[in-house]
Specification:
The protein is of the alpha+beta class. Helices cover 21% and strands 32% of the residues. It has twelve helices and 27 strands. Residues 32-43, 49-54, 57-61, 87-105 and 389-402 have low confidence and may be disordered.
Amino acid sequence: MRRWQTWFFGRWVQLLFWVVVIGAGWMLVQSRAGGPRLWWPFEPARPPLQLVEAPPTSGPPSGWTAVAKATMPAVVNIASAKTVRGLEGTSAPFFSDPFFRFFFAPEPAPQRERSLGSGVILTREGYVLTNNHVVDGAQDIRVTLNDRRELKARLIGADPKTDLAVLKLPGSGYSVLPVGDSSRVEVAEVVLAIGNPFGLAQTVTMGIVSAVGRANVGIADYEDFIQTDAAINPGNSGGALVSAGGALIGINTAIFTQSGGYMGIGFAVPINMARQVMDQLVTRGRLNRGYLGVAVQDVTPAITRGLGLSVEGGILVSDVTPGGPAAQAGLQRGDVITSIDGKPVTDVGHFRNLVARTVPSTRVQLTILRNGRQQTAEVVIGEAPERARPVAAAAPARSRAELPGVAVTDVTPEVAQRLGLPPAVQGAVVTRVASGGPAAEAGLRPGDVIQEVNRQPVRSARDFARAVEQAGDRDVVALVNRGGTTAYVVIERTA
C-alpha cells in the first residue's frame, strides 16, 4: 500500500494526473457550449458578427425621393376663413317647430366658415397659384410654409371660370417649383400629387396620367383637365401635379367621387392654361379672353344623319350672337366648323378653350361646311364681355321608338312675352310632351319653341306638322329656342 501511495503522489504522476483532470473538465465545459474542442489552445478566435450596413449618403438619393424633396418646399398649406350669416340656437327643440322658428327665432348671428387647401409658390417674390374654390369669398387667408412658418396672404385675383386664383406672400426669396410644359404630358406617364389632404401637410402620392384633354366634365366653364389616378382628396385642391423630372405640370383641382373621398379619378388644370390665367391676373388684374359670339354643340352620329352631313368631326353652330364677331364674318346657324387656322376641330371643349386663349383683335381663319360645301371665313376675335359665358348645348339623348305625340301651338306675341322671348320670334311652342317618349328623352319640354325641323323653317304649328310629316321615318332634327338660346335636339326614329 505504501509503495502505491508513493508512486501515485510522485512528481511526474501528479503532473500527469492534473493535466488529465483539467483537460477532461475543459472538454466537459466546451461540450455544453457546442461540442468538444481538443486543440483549443491552437484554434483561431471567431470573428465578430458583421451586419450589412447601408453606406452613408453624401447627397440626396436618386429617383422619386429626390423629386419629392426638391418640390415639397414650394407646396404650401392654405387656410381661409369668411364670415357668413346663420341662425343662433337653431338646434334647440323649441326652435325646431316651424311656427316658433317663424315668430320667435333669434336674429341671424355671424358665423365663421373655414376652408383648407393647398397652393404652389411659382415665383421667388411669393406669388402662389391655387384654386378659386379654396379662397372664394375669404376674408382671411393664412399660408403655412414647409418650414412651418405661417404668413398672411393677399388675394391678387381669381378666375371662377377656370377655378384658379393667385395669392401674394409678403417678402421674397421663397422656394419655387419649376414650371413644365403640359402639352407634352402623355397618357401613362408617372406623376406625383403633392398637397395637404384632410389637413395632413406635405402628403405625396404617386400615380399615372390616365387621360389628357378632359373637357365637358362640369367642374368649370373652361376645361382641359389632366386626369390622374394619383390619390387626391379634400385639401389637395390647389396642390401640385409633378412630372418625373420634378416640373409642375398641373394644379390639382377636383375628384370624381360617389363617397366623398378618393375613387381613383382626379383632375388637374394643365399648367399651360394656369400660367396664362396667372400672368393676366398679376399684370392686368383681370382676364382678357377671346370671344367669337356663337353657341356650338358636338356633331353626333344622330345629327350627322338627321342633317345629312358628309363630314366626320367638327362642331355645329346652333346660334349666332347678333353683332358679334362670328355674325360679322358671316357665320350662320347650321354651319359646321371643321378647323381653325388649319387645326382640326374635334369637340366643343377644345374649340372653346382655343378661342378663349386667342388674344382679342387676332384674325383667325375658320373652315366651315355649309350645305355640303366647304368654305372659309376670316373672323376677328373679340374680347369676351364680363358676363359672357361659353354656351354648348347638351348632347341629345337617343331613342329608337316612334315619335310620340307632341302638342304645339303658334307663338303669339303674348306667348313670346310669357316665355321671355322677343316679340318677333316665330315658331311652334311645345305645350305637351308625352312622358317617357323619345321626344322627352331627347330633352324636349313644354315651353320650347321649335324654329326648324330638318333644316326647314317652322313659323307656325302648321309648319311643324307639315315638316314632321315630310320627315317620314327619318330622324327629326329640331332647332329649339329655350329662353333665348337655341340648340339642336335629335329625336331618333330609325334603327
